[in-house]
Amino acid sequence: MTRDAAGDDGLAEWQRLSPWAIGLTLATTGVSLVREHLPLLLAAGAGLAVSDRVGLREALLGGGLLLVVALLLSLLYYRRFRFRFDADVLVIQKGLFVHREFKVAARHVQQTSVQQPAWMRPLGVVQWEVETLAGEAASIALPGIRRELAEALEARLVGAASRSGPTTAADEMPAPVERFAITPGALVLHGLTSRSLVVIAALLSPLVRPLERWLHDRLPQLDPWAWLPASPPLAVGLGLVAALAALMLLAVLAAWWRFHGYVLRDDGERQVQVSGLLHRRSQTLTLRRLQVVEWVQTGPGRALGRGYLVCHQFGAMAGGEVAEGRRFLVPGLTAARADTLVPSLWPGRGAAPSLTAPLQRVAGLYRRVLFLRLLLAMVAGVGLLAGVAGVGLLAGVAGDGLVGLPAWSPGPVLVGLVALAAGLAHLRWRSLGWSCRGGWLRVRRGLWGQRTSLFPAAHLVSLQVQQSWLQRRRGVVTLRLYLASGRLSLPFVEERVALALANRLLASVEGLPDEGAVTA
Prior knowledge:
The protein is α+β, with helices and mostly antiparallel strands. About 45% of the residues lie in helices and about 25% in strands. It has helices at about 20-35, 40-50, 55-80, 145-165, 185-195, 195-205, 210-220, 230-260, 300-305, 320-325, 335-345, 365-395, 410-430, 470-475, 495-510, and strands at about 15, 80-85, 90-95, 100-105, 110-115, 125-130, 135-145, 175-180, 265, 270-275, 280-285, 290-295, 305-310, 330-335, 360, 435, 440-445, 450-455, 460-465, 475-485, 485-495. The protein is globular, with a radius of gyration of 29 Å. InterPro entries: YdbS-like_PH.
C-alpha cells in the first residue's frame, strides 16, 4: 500500500464499532464502576443482607433490571459512536445524552496503541487508542473495532503524517526491520531489575497484617518448632529470604505477562513494538514526536548490568512504574545494546553519544550542601526516636526508678551518622553529571538507581538560571532545562560553565553554528 492511497480503504465513509463492542462497553464500564465505588457497593450489599424486606427474589429482580438498563445504554452508545477520516483529520462522534465530536489531525498524533486481551481474540476485535500532542489526558480510544480496521487506521495516519511532514524520495512504505527481540533470559533479568519488585511489595503490603493474624492463630496448631530452625535469628532470616524469593517470582511473572514475545520493528518514520503473553499489545511511536530518550537502571539493574530505554514524547516525563508502562519502553537491555538502538530512534541526527560515556560533575559545593542536609535530617530523626523511646522507658519504670536502664552515649552514634551522611552525599554528588557534545545533551541523576536523559540540544524549549544567596557567594548557579516532555535540573554548576552551556543551548535552538563541546 502506498502512502498516497487515501480513498481506497473506505475510511472516508462513516465507520462503526464492532457489534461485540456492546458487550465490551458493558463489561468495561461495569468493572470500572465496581472498582471506583467498591466501598459503597459493599455497604449497600451489607444493608440488603440484613434487611427483612429484600429477599433473594427482589435482589435478582433489581439486578436484572439494572442489567437491562445498562444493556440499553450500551446499545445507545454503540449506535451514536461513529468515526471517519475527513482528508487528514480523524473525526469521532459519540455521546449518550450529549452529542460530542472530536477531531484529531494526523500531524498531531504522536503514539497509537492496539490492545487485545485473551478474551477478545476469538472475537477478532481490538481496542485502538491514539495519543495526541496534549498527552494522555487527550487520548481518544475506539473500544472494539476489527483488527483489519485498526490496521487501516494505522496506515492512514502514517500516510497523512508523511504528507504533512517532510517528503521522501520513495513513495512506497519501507518494509519493517526488526531492531530488537527480547530473549527469555533477558526477560527474567528485566523482571528482577525493574521497579516491579517495589510495586508488587507495595500492593501486597495491606496483606501483611491479615497474614500475621492468621499465623498467630494457626502456628500453635501446626507445631512450627518441628520444621523451623531452633535459632530465632536464623528463622527470621529464612522468612525474609522466602518473602524476597516470592516477590522476585511475582516480578518475573509480571515481566513475562507484559513483555513476553517483545519485538521492536523499525518502520521508517515510526517504531512499532508488540508484546504480551495473553494480553497482546502493540504500540507505535512517531519518531518526529520523540523528545527525550532515557536510559534507566535500578540498583539491582546496575549490579546485573541491565536496564531499559524509555522514549518520552510531549508531556510524558511524569515518573512512576504505572506511567512508564504506558510509554514506549524497550526492556531487558545491556548498555552496549542500548547504544546500538539509540541511533535508530534519532534518524538523521548524526551519531548519538554513548549512554555510559564519562560525564562532567557539578561543583563540589553541592556535596557539602548535601552532607549538611542529610546530617541534620538524620540527627533530627535519631533525636525524635530517642525521645519517644525515653518516654516509653520512663513510663515503664516510673515506680522503680531508673535502675537497670542501659547506658547510652551519643558520641559513637553521632560519629556513625556523620560517616553515613558523608558517604551518601559523596555518592549522590558522583552520580549527578552532564555532558554537551556534538549537539547532544546528556543529564544523569539518581543515587541507587540512575536515569540518563539524552536529547538533541535543539529540542530545548527554554532554560532558566537561578542563584540563591549562597550560590552567588560561591559563584555557582542552578540550570533548569524545559523541554516539551518535562523539566530537568542541573544544580550547583560553576557560573562560567553554566553561562557557556546556556549560550550553547540557545544557539542550538536558534539554529546557529555549533561551537563544540562545553567543558569545565
